Amino acid sequence: QPILVPILGDQLTRNLASLRGRTQDDTVILMMEVWDEATYVKHHKQKIALIFSAMRHFAAELREAGWTVDYIKLTDADNSGSFTGEVARAIGRYDPRAVHVVEASEWRVHQMQDEWPDKFVCDVEILPDDRFLCSHAEFEAWAEGRKHLTMEYFYREMRKKTGFLMRGDGKPVGGEWNLDKENRQPPKDSMDPPARPKFEPDEITREVIELVEGQFGNHFGSLEHFEWPVTRAQAEEAADAFFAERIEKFGPYQDAMVHGSDDLYHSMLSTSINLGLLDLLELCERAQQAYEEDNAPLNSVEGFIRQIIGWREYVRGFYWHFMPELESRNALNAQRALPQFYWTGETDMRCMADSIRSTRENAHAHHIQRLMVLGNFALLAGINPRDVQDWFLAVYADAYDWVELPNVVGMILYADGGKLATKPYAASGNYINKMSDYCKQCRYSVSKKTGEGACPFNPLYWHFMDRNRDQLESNHRIGRIYSTWDRMGEEKRREYLDSAENFLDSLQPASKGWARYT
Ligand code: FAD
Ligand code: DLZ
Ligand code: SF4
């Protein structure tokens, strides 16, 4: 009787807790393409193609290394369509003495796994996912008794724990923990970021692309530019290029936006990291090495390491700490439907149109587009959190509930009432103008505050502040905004509010069928 080891689609590493220490002759690995996972939201076509292709490549790699892999394809005749159904069928086939599986990264799938011990005739062991650097218990111990779960303090603990950029005396290299203030440079005309490596679809990927076009042709997004790494070797090549060519300027231009320039100096590694193709400690070691060898300044390297051992680990801990309530939080009582243009890209707002174009073409937009353009608009316009969650979960190739949800509910929408962010990331057109080249050729005028042709972010900003005054005025980081508002006088305030309302009234709500099967 073998041990059955199901490997989920975002667990694609040989260094998985369920494989470690196992021998090949008494192990059957099970990998499953299932309808339920492909359709719980209508994922971008590239996201499904990426996951299926990476799964198929990983299965081939495991077989080549001598493992027995039972791989269930989406269109296999008896495919039951769910993880639970497929594990049950595999138990029928192999009569294993136990199932060893690594805990799912998402609440939804973890709930399924929790039922397995009662459902199945054999033993079921659910193992911790030690690819994350901070265990659930460690996060809970850190969170215990804290009024605010401030990322910065979590991050400092992670620096001490991992030793990255630490001096022998326990102080941070360079004397400061966080160099974010050096990482806010606007784009320069002379910027010329080197292109990242693009990976031509091989036969496996081409077959998957055909499958996705056939089965999920009505999902959002284009498959024309499928260029993601789908194997560990390719992901490492992508990482090599980042550390050789882009990390130097990663820090300074982290918040910059340039029309038509989709990668800038970002690593573009999130899809590979989330699938399990890259190892977090190795990435951080390489970043640190770039600093030690004088290939990148401290602000770039610290910024990169902070995203990985700080933000990424923090949002994962935050997710498990607040689930399942997190997904229904709506502290600002935002009720508006998501506008249709999030799906079509048909809007005259040039910043939104470009961010949505990149999303449609690449299943990717970089952080500041997600946060300060797409997210900021959703916040200011009062889009209900469920619609925004569905959109962000569906459209990005790196999107999984555990990472998307805290970013949407906590970071962009302030729907958790300020647990993640100490104030809403609300900004008028001025911020976007400062950090991008979008506004110069926009149909709207960023310097016009109200009325016909005014940048919609301007009146929406004040509409947001005004309608949420009860909740926000007591926040010491934002409260003083209201004295500016009050000083404007009744007539000016009315102009802002009317302009915002006219704009909001003009928005066409999206049909629900874009995000979910109805
Ligand atoms: P880089 O800019 O090169 O950053 C390096 C790495 O740091 C990323 O690959 C990622 O692993 C990590 N990272 C950076 N910021 C965050 C963050 N806020 N949370 C978690 N990890 C972070 N990231 C996802 O992986 N999946 C998502 O579904 C996702 N949804 C998001 C939704 C919103 C509203 C926002 C504001 C951010 C979201 N992010 C998400 C975080 C971030 O935008 C992406 O990780 C990043 O854009 C990926 O591109 P990159 O690999 O070039 O990142
Ligand atoms: C996102 C996704 C999709 C689209 N399809 C599958 C699949 O068919 N099989 C699979 O194992 N995983 C898939 N995934 C990723 C899973 O949803 C992910 O592993 C879990 O959500 C983790 O909780
Ligand atoms: Fe966006 Fe306003 Fe600038 Fe147009 S003017 S690109 S809508 S910020």
Which structural traits does this protein have?
about 525 residues, mainly alpha, Rossmann fold, DNA Cyclobutane Dipyrimidine Photolyase, subunit A, domain 3, 5-stranded parallel β-sheet, about 45% helix, about 5% strand, binds flavin-adenine dinucleotide, binds ligand DLZ, binds iron/sulfur cluster, Rossmann-like_a/b/a_fold, PhrB-like, Crypto/Photolyase_FAD-like_sf, Cryptochrome/photolyase family protein
Low-confidence stretches: none
Shape: globular
Q: How many domains make up the coordinates?
A: 3
Physical arrangement of strands within the biggest beta sheet:
3-2-1-4-5
Let me know the average pLDDT: 97
The span between the termini is 43 Å
Strand content: under 5%
Please give the CATH architecture of the largest domain. Answer: Alpha Horseshoe
Q: Could you tell me the number of beta strands? A: 5
- Our count of helices gives 21
**Largest beta-sheet characterization:** 5 strands, parallel
User: What is the share of helical residues?
Assistant: 40-55%
Small molecules (ligands, ions, cofactors) in the structure: flavin-adenine dinucleotide, ligand DLZ, iron/sulfur cluster
Protein name: Cryptochrome/photolyase family protein
Biased composition (Basic and acidic residues): 178-199
Region (Disordered): 175-199
Pfam families: DPRP
How is this structure best described in words?
- This protein has 518 residues and is mainly α.
- It has 3 domains: 3-127, HUPs (Rossmann fold, 3-Layer(aba) Sandwich); 136-322, Serine Threonine Protein Phosphatase 5, Tetratricopeptide repeat (Alpha Horseshoe); 341-514, Orthogonal Bundle (DNA Cyclobutane Dipyrimidine Photolyase, subunit A, domain 3).
- The protein is built from 21 helices and 5 strands.
- β4, α4 and β5 form a beta-alpha-beta unit.
- α8 (232-250) packs across α11, α14 crosses α18 and α18 (457-467) crosses α21.
- It is globular.
- The protein binds flavin-adenine dinucleotide, ligand DLZ and iron/sulfur cluster.
- Residues 266-270, 273-274, 307-308, 311-312, 315, 366-367, 370-371, 375, 392, 396, 398-399, 403-404, 407-408, 411-412 line the site of flavin-adenine dinucleotide.
